Each structure stands twice: as structure tokens, then as C-alpha cells.
Task: inverse folding
């Protein structure tokens, strides 16, 4: 497989998850706006989240600016990162951040829809956490091999 093919596949992968997340957010806003729980406190619970992680309250414009700075920083790290797994983790997190940024621009909130006990989140949040987790684990592996 050629290097360009892998990049295309990665962007298709990311685009798929952004579109899937945006579809779920539209369903949460307009089709299924009422909570549906499968197992007690686990299920579908559409919520507008004006804050950032853990619902920390900040102004929307400040969150947008911080997100853009973070995306620039991630882009820089992606460009200089030599380990393909670390780069993959950063790219996955970037796709999640872009999806939440779209929410911030159009709705001045993020649209969360999955509830697990007291946490309500969306697919973009999962991408961010998984991507940063992959990045940190591969950094740890790189440093322990030295």
C-alpha cells in the first residue's frame, strides 16, 4: 500500500466518524430529543453542553479560540511526529475536536447524547479521549525503549 493511499484511508476514516457524530447530533436535536435509557443510567440522553470537559463553564468564543489553538498545536505535532501510531492518535483526536468545533460554531454548545451514569458525551469526545490515549501510550512506549 502506498503512503498516499494510507493518508486517503485515514481521512476517509476520520470523515466517516465526523459525519456519524454529526448525524447522531442531528438525531439528538430534531428526531429523538427525549432520553431513552437501556440499563438504568445508560442510554440516549440528548444534552446541550455550553462548557468544555466536565461541563467547565467558559464563554463560547473563548472555547472556539482555545480549540483553534489546540488544533494548530496538534497539526504541528502531527507534522513533526515520526512514530506513525503517535501521529494516528493525534489525528483521531483532531477529528473529534473538529466535530465539536462545528457544534460550537453552529449551536454555541456541543451536543452530547450518550449517557453512562453521570457522564453525558458524544462520539467526538470518544475520539478525543481515545486519540490522546493512543498518543500518550505510544509516547510512553517510545521513552521506555530508549
Result:
Amino acid at each position: 500500500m502506498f503512503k498516499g493511499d494510507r493518508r486517503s484511508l485515514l481521512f476517509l476514516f476520520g470523515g466517516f466518524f465526523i459525519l456519524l457524530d454529526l448525524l447522531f447530533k442531528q438525531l439528538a436535536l430534531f428526531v429523538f430529543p427525549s432520553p431513552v435509557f437501556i440499563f438504568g443510567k445508560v442510554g440516549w440522553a440528548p444534552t446541550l453542553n455550553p462548557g468544555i470537559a466536565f461541563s467547565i463553564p467558559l464563554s463560547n468564543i473563548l472555547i472556539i479560540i482555545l480549540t483553534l489553538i489546540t488544533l494548530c498545536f496538534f497539526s504541528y505535532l502531527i507534522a513533526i511526529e515520526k512514530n506513525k501510531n503517535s501521529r494516528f492518535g493525534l489525528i483521531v483526536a483532531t477529528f473529534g475536536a473538529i466535530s465539536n468545533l462545528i457544534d460550537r460554531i453552529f449551536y454555541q454548545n456541543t451536543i452530547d447524547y450518550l449517557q453512562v451514569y453521570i457522564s453525558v458525551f458524544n462520539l467526538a469526545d470518544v475520539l478525543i479521549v481515545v486519540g490522546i490515549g493512543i498518543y500518550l501510550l505510544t509516547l510512553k512506549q517510545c521513552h521506555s525503549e530508549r
Summary: Residues 3-144 form one domain. Helices lie at 3-31, 60-80, 84-107, 123-144. The chain has one domain: 3-144.
